[in-house]
Structures are given as structure tokens and as C-alpha cells.
């Protein structure tokens, strides 16, 4: 295929899937699978030509090929990088923005710790730059001292105290909760001399946090408020096509040695070229994101796609994906299932893995979810509210955009208004309550749904209560 004919092919292929960026995005599984297959075929053809003529595809200038510290500096903020060693020897890198442009140096700032989701890294909180204002920049400008974590196995956290550790990728979000989050919290509190911190997690940033606080309850006292963005806990209602396809591959990969999945080194230059403005394949990039997390074309800034996909996917272990797959198939939030033969070795003779006891969590939690989230479905999110102890969830809010999806929490055009402002306002209300904004003792402050949301919560929790009593 000549280069000219190849470009014509891309235009035709893109035309067949351009509905991904229109309100006609297919809602049925068969339609989404058809578009997914066409998208993958077009990308594979592009990859062949890309490998044969890399000089023809140059990434746009901007944040796509910069590191997180370089991006922070580009927008005029100070930055620091800190290496943290976990109890089991993994070396993680924390990125810190100690103060903002409108709030200078000085001790005594409130401390915020932001933790990314699956396949993400610390760039998730800043990659939208000065356009839609990443949450990290907004927090530091509001006088927070901001720290951004990086889970083991991603772009910034692939070192270990034992350089010859053969089973480096033998971990899932269980180990991230048991070791990564506690080590990061301890390091941040020691460095800042703060008695506690504010935690914001997106997706797996919530999953591992709930593991940490339920399995190591002494850490609850170190977190003043946890803001959960699209929390992934119970997941039986996940409707992402990509996830459904991956579930079929679980038997193939559910055995040691576990491996690194989709490091950015595999996709960085290809994504930067494939998704840049003017590329006929740019709609294909949007298609992939929509098929994973839900479609919301009005909130996806196509100009930012090279920067976004120049940092994500940032890599994780195959075991982490498998653990999520088990959660989807079982409908429960529990430890890794090694099978009936091996579970007794890991779980004191038990044939099935134990569930995490969310009632051990005493940290106050504010939950935010999107109505069009393909991964953290609203029914599953609301179910999790019942699993926490009374008074633990102090805010439950649906984002006020009917198309708001899983990835919009970190990349949406209107993230300032729809997410950042809402989250930060409640953090302020929680810290400095007034009689007009304080929820009743043990109650939940509801937004974006009011009385109707109370009805949904009561119906869902009542349904699960009847299920558990049958």
C-alpha cells in the first residue's frame, strides 16, 4: 500500500467510525463491538505505516512528550520529586506542587494527596494545563500543598530495592492499598509535619484507598476527608465493551509470571501522531476512550488528546486487571482469587477470598459519580454507600451532566465547574462547617439529585437488603 493510498484508507476507515464523536454513538453492545473492531483494524494499518515511515509523523509541540515535572514547570509552578520506599521494597515517585501562583510559600498549608486510577499516573491531575484547569493546579492556587502519587509499576514507579526481583509485577490493587498508599501517606505527613491530609482518588485511587483503610484501620486517623471520584468497588454492572472483551482473556493470563501491561513506551509516539489535530485518525482516539469509559463528545478536548495519550496508559500489572475482572464477575469487593486449590494457602484455609470489611473505614468520604460512567455504574456506586458504616459517607453527588463518564473526572473540558469546584467547595464546607451547609449528624449531603436521589438510595439499599436476607 502506497502512503497516498494509505491516507485514503484512513479517511474511509475514520468515516465509518466517526459516529463516536456524535450523539449517535451506539448504545448497544453489538454496535459498539462493530466500531471497536473497525477502530482496531484502522490503528493496526496505521501502525504498519508508522513503523515504516516514522519520519512522516512528528508529535505536536506541547505536553505529550514532557515529564510531569516539566509540565508543572511549563505552567510556572514549583515542583519537587520524592522517592518513597514501601514496606515490600517498591520505590514510588511522588510529585509535589508545594504552592500556587496566587498563594506563595509558607508553612501550615492544608495538605492534599491525589491518587490516580488504573493505567494512569500523576499527569492525570495536571495534563489539561491552563485550559480546563487540572485539579492539582486549582488546589495549590487555593493554598493547598499538593502531592500526586504514582502506583507501583507505572511510568514513574518501576524501581525496587531488589533490582533482580523476578516477580516484580506480582501485585494488584490489593498491594497498592496495603503498601503504596500507607507509605505515601506516612512520607507526606512526615515531610509536611501535618497531622492529617485530604485524599482525592479517581477510580483505582478509590479502590486501593478502601483496601488501605479497611485492612490497616490505623490510617483512618491520618485522613481528614476522602473525596472519591468514580469509585471502583462493586462492579457487576460495568458495561464497558473493552472490559467485556478483556474478561474473555482472563483464563489465558491468570497465572504467574504476571507482566507489565501497556507501558507508555509502547504508545507514546504513536498516540501523539495518531491523535494530533489535523490527523484523519483523530476520531479513532476518541472512539477508544468512549468505548472504555463512556461517550461524552462535548467534554473531550480533541486538541489535548496527544498530551493525554502521551502519558496514559502509563502501565500496570496484568494481575491488577485480573483482580478487577474477578470483581466484575463475582459482583463482590474482595481479595484476589487464586482458585480453590491455592486460596487456602493465602487465606488461612479458606476456599474463597475474604471480602474487604468496608465498615472498618472511619474516614469521612465524599462520593462523586457520573451518570454515563461505563466502568463505575451508578447502581454499583450507590450500593457501596450501604456497605460503609453509618455516618462514613458525608456527601453523595451525581455530576450535573447526563453524559459525564469515567474519564471526564480528570480530562473534561468543564472539569473546573463540574468537578473541581464541587469537590473543593465541599472540602471547604467540611473543614469550616456553618449551620446552613452542615449535614445532620450521620447524614449525607446530596447534590445533583436531591429528593430523587434519596429515593434511589432507599430503593437500591432495600433491594440488596432483601437479597441478603433470602
List the helices and strands and how they pair.
Elements: H1 3-17, H2 29-52, H3 68-74, E1 80-85, E2 90-97, E3 110-115, H4 135-141, E4 144-148, E5 159-160, H5 173-192, E6 197-202, H6 204-215, E7 223-229, H7 241-247, H8 250-253, E8 260-261, H9 264-274, H10 282-293, H11 305-309, E9 316-317, H12 318-330, H13 343-346, E10 365-369, H14 378-387, E11 393-398, H15 408-411, H16 415-431, E12 445-447, H17 450-469
Parallel strand pairs: 3-4, 3-6, 6-7, 7-10, 10-11, 11-12
Antiparallel strand pairs: 1-2, 2-4, 2-5, 8-9
Based on the model shown, name its key terms.
470 residues, disordered C terminus
Task: Report on the architecture of this protein.
The longest helix has 24 residues, at 29-52. With 470 residues, the protein is an alpha/beta fold. It is 41% helix and 12% strand. Residues 1-23, 54-61, 437-443 and 448-470 have low confidence and may be disordered. It starts with a helix and ends with a helix. It has helices spanning 3-17, 29-52, 68-74, 135-141, 173-192, 204-215, 241-247, 250-253, 264-274, 282-293, 305-309, 318-330, 343-346, 378-387, 408-411, 415-431, 450-469; strands at residues 80-85, 90-97, 110-115, 144-148, 159-160, 197-202, 223-229, 260-261, 316-317, 365-369, 393-398, 445-447. Helix 2 (29-52) crosses helix 10. Strands 1, 2, 3, 4, 5, 6, 7, 10, 11 and 12 form a 10-stranded mixed β-sheet that branches. Strands 8-9 form a two-stranded antiparallel ribbon. It is built from 17 helices and 12 strands.
Amino acid at each position: 500500500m502506497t502512503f497516498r493510498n494509505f491516507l485514503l484508507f484512513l479517511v474511509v476507515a475514520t468515516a465509518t467510525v466517526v459516529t463516536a464523536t456524535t450523539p449517535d454513538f451506539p448504545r448497544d453492545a453489538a454496535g459498539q463491538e462493530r466500531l471497536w473492531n473497525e477502530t482496531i483494524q484502522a490503528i493496526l494499518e496505521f501502525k504498519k505505516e508508522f513503523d515504516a515511515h516514522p519520519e512522516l509523523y512528528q508529535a505536536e509541540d506541547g505536553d505529550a512528550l514532557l515529564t510531569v515535572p516539566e509540565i508543572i514547570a511549563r505552567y510556572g509552578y514549583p515542583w519537587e520529586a520524592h522517592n518513597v520506599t514501601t514496606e515490600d521494597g517498591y520505590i514510588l515517585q511522588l510529585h509535589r506542587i508545594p504552592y500556587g501562583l496566587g498563594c506563595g510559600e509558607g508553612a501550615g498549608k492544608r495538605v492534599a494527596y491525589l491518587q490516580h486510577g488504573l493505567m494512569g499516573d500523576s499527569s492525570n491531575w495536571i495534563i489539561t494545563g491552563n485550559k480546563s484547569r487540572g485539579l492539582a493546579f486549582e488546589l495549590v492556587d487555593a493554598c493547598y500543598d499538593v502531592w500526586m502519587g504514582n502506583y507501583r509499576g507505572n511510568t514513574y514507579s518501576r524501581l525496587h530495592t531488589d533490582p533482580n526481583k523476578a516477580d516484580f509485577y506480582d501485585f494488584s490493587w490489593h498491594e497498592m492499598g496495603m503498601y503504596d498508599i500507607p507509605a505515601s501517606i506516612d512520607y507526606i505527613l512526615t515531610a509536611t509535619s501535618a497531622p492529617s491530609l485530604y485524599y482525592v482518588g479517581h477510580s483505582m485511587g478509590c479502590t486501593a484507598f478502601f483496601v488501605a483503610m479497611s485492612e490497616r484501620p490505623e490510617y483512618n486517623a491520618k485522613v481528614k476527608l476522602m473525596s472519591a471520584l468514580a469509585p471502583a468497588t462493586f462492579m457487576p454492572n460495568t458495561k464497558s465493551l473493552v472490559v467485556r472483551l478483556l474478561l474473555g482473556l482472563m483464563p489465558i493470563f491468570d497465572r504467574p509470571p504476571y507482566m507489565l501491561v501497556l507501558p507508555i513506551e509502547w504508545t507514546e509516539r504513536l498516540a501523539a501522531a495518531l491523535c494530533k489535530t489535523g490527523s484523519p485518525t483523530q476520531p479513532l482516539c476518541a472512539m477508544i476512550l468512549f468505548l472504555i469509559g463512556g461517550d461524552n463528545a462535548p467534554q473531550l478536548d480533541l486538541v489535548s488528546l496527544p498530551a493525554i495519550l502521551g502519558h496514559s496508559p502509563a502501565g500496570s500489572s496484568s494481575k491488577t486487571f485480573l483482580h478487577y475482572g474477578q470483581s466484575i464477575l463475582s459482583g463482590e469487593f474482595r481479595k484476589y482469587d487464586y482458585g480453590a486449590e491455592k486460596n487456602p494457602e493465602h487465606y488461612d484455609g479458606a476456599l474463597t477470598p475474604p471480602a474487604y470489611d468496608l465498615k472498618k473505614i472511619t474516614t469521612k468520604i465524599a462520593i462523586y459519580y457520573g451518570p454515563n460512567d461505563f466502568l463505575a455504574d451508578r447502581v454499583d456506586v450507590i450500593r457501596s454507600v450501604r456497605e460503609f458504616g453509618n455516618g462514613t459517607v458525608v456527601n453523595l453527588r451525581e455530576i450535573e451532566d447526563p453524559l459525564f463518564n469515567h474519564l471526564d473526572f480528570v480530562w473534561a473540558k468543564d472539569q473546573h465547574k463540574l468537578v473541581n469546584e464541587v469537590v473543593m467547595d465541599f472540602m471547604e464546607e467540611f473543614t469550616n462547617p456553618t449551620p446552613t451547609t452542615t449535614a445532620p449528624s450521620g447524614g449525607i449531603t446530596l447534590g445533583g439529585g436531591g429528593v430523587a436521589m434519596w429515593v434511589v438510595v432507599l430503593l437500591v439499599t432495600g433491594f440488596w437488603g432483601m437479597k441478603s436476607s433470602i
